[in-house]
Design brief:
The complex is a heterodimer of chains A (281) and B (155). With 281 residues, chain A is α+β, with helices and mostly antiparallel strands. In chain A, 31% of the residues lie in helices and 25% in strands. In chain A, the strands form 4 sheets. A 5-stranded antiparallel sheet of chain A has the order 4-5-10-6-7. With 155 residues, chain B is an alpha+beta fold. Chain B folds into 2 domains: 74 residues, Ubiquitin-like (UB roll) (Roll); 71 residues, [2Fe-2S]-binding domain (DNA polymerase, domain 1, Orthogonal Bundle), CATH 1.10.150.120. Classes of the chains: A alpha+beta (281), B alpha+beta (155).
Chain lengths: 281, 155
């Protein structure tokens, strides 16, 4: 039996103090961790360090706006986000494609980020929103861009004494948002490919365009350089430009074969989603 | 010791904090209405209410539910809402092997308590986390729609 020591402390301050004293496994909703650490025959889930429960911490459940930034507490569940008036509608559209009501009542935004799955459902949208991750420890606070925070599958830039407290979404204007998830089942499925895109037109030309792919590489794939190339182009886009962008992405997306899908299928569908996004408004 | 409310009673358990709620319910409290199908949160057979919200008990570590109110199908079966759902499931022919039904009924109840007049699409969304390998779902959708009508004012 591994250790069964755990903590469920009264507030965030005490939780942070404990993290400064001891390396713990932080658990929010547990919808990923309880599967990853499952024991056979219904024995308790096994962890190699003490578990610290955080999903009850009210400090991590706030959603509020400061100037043009939306702050979302790390332990807000998908259901809480669905019901909150400040959450952008494209996130609500995406959340309806995540899991099913029972998991949406438990899974958290912070958990989805820290799990850092290449197929993490919220990640492509967080990337195009230029989301920032706010972390706290007993030594202070820092804010990291999401693409720097997520370093690889299950690897994030979090020191063991730190806890993710908030996700900050800068305000974003677009004429169109897209979220696509390709999976075997409409509910409770892990994406084979996911895609998020946004476009803003200024007088018939591309003013701002952003797009990101999930599950076709070790982390979410977004290219600022390719997005930059499209800025100022007349819309509808010249088919030649679309071909060029698709060819560029063909080079940088690098999917794998696994039990959910094949690399060839993932690449084909990812590029078609991209073309569809660039061709339609 | 972890204390919580189970089907209206205050209970406590000395199960390790990372024990799964489904195991504690079944093994320690002999509440065997909730089933373990997949153990991965994909089938919904273990659905229970946690503070009125439907959740998968196979994904919940017991240490996370200190002071929470847990309602299982065993407790829910004592309610008027259950009676209506039970009649409607039976009338619609929504039950075959029965393994998924405790979870399905909890999902139907969770949906109706939030949305007493759901559309067909909303019913399908409401039970989307629950797998049934017998019925093809149509009769379960019918049963839930019927329960909305017959249980008017209850939800």
């Amino acid at each position: 039996m591994g250790t069964v020591l755990s903590y469920r402390l009264e507030d965030l301050e005490q939780t942070i103090a404990q993290l400064s004293r001891e390396d713990c496994q932080i658990m929010a909703g547990g919808t990923d961790l309880m599967v990853q650490h499952k024991s056979p025959m219904g024995a308790p889930a096994r962890f190699d360090k003490p578990v610290i429960f955080i999903d009850h911490l009210k400090e991590l459940k706030q959603i509020y706006q400061v100037n043009h930034d939306l702050h979302i507490g790390a332990c807000c569940t998908y259901s809480e986000m669905l019901e909150h008036p400040l959450i952008p509608s494209i996130f609500k559209i995406a959340i309806k494609q995540i899991a099913a009501p029972a998991i949406r009542n438990r899974g958290t935004l912070g958990g989805n980020i820290c799990n850092a799955s290449p197929a993490g459902d919220t990640l492509p949208l967080l990337y195009i929103f230029n989301a920032q991750i706010r972390l706290r420890s007993s030594k202070g606070e820092r804010v990291v861009e999401i693409q720097d925070f997520i370093q690889g599958p299950r690897r994030v830039d979090r020191l063991k004494e730190e806890i993710v407290t908030e996700i900050i979404l800068p305000e974003m204007q677009a004429d169109r948002f897209v979220f696509e998830k390709v999976a075997n089942r409409r509910a409770d499925a892990i994406a084979k490919i996911s895609f998020a895109g946004s476009m803003r037109l200024d007088e018939g030309r591309v003013g701002d365009v952003r797009f990101a792919f999930g599950a076709v590489g070790p982390t979410i794939i977004r290219s600022l350089a390719i997005e930059q190339k499209l800025k100022g182009e007349a819309f509808p886009l010249d088919p030649k430009i679309i071909d060029e962008v698709a060819a560029d992405f063909d080079q940088i997306i690098n999917p794998i074969d696994d039990h959910r899908s094949t690399a060839a299928y993932r690449k084909t569908v990812a590029l078609r989603l991209l073309r569809h996004f660039l061709e339609t408004m | 010791m972890i204390k919580f409310h189970l089907n209206g009673r205050e209970v406590e358990t000395d199960a390790p904090p990372t024990a799964r709620l489904i195991d504690v319910l079944r093994d320690e409290f002999a509440l065997i209405g909730s089933k373990e199908g997949c153990g991965d949160g994909e089938c919904g057979a273990c659905s229970v209410f946690v503070n009125t919200l439907v959740q998968n008990s196979c994904l919940i570590p017991i240490g996370a539910i200190e002071r929470a109110e847990i309602l299982t199908i065993d407790g829910f079966s004592q309610t008027e809402q259950f009676q209506v759902l039970s009649e409607c499931y039976s009338e619609a022919g929504a039950v075959q092997c029965g393994f998924c039904i405790p979870g399905m009924v909890m999902a139907s109840a969770a949906l109706l308590s939030k949305n007493p007049h759901p559309t067909e699409e909303e019913i399908r969304e409401g039970i989307s986390g629950n797998l049934c390998r017998c019925t093809g779902y149509n009769m379960i959708v019918d049963a839930t729609r019927l329960a909305a009508k017959k249980g008017e004012g209850l939800w």
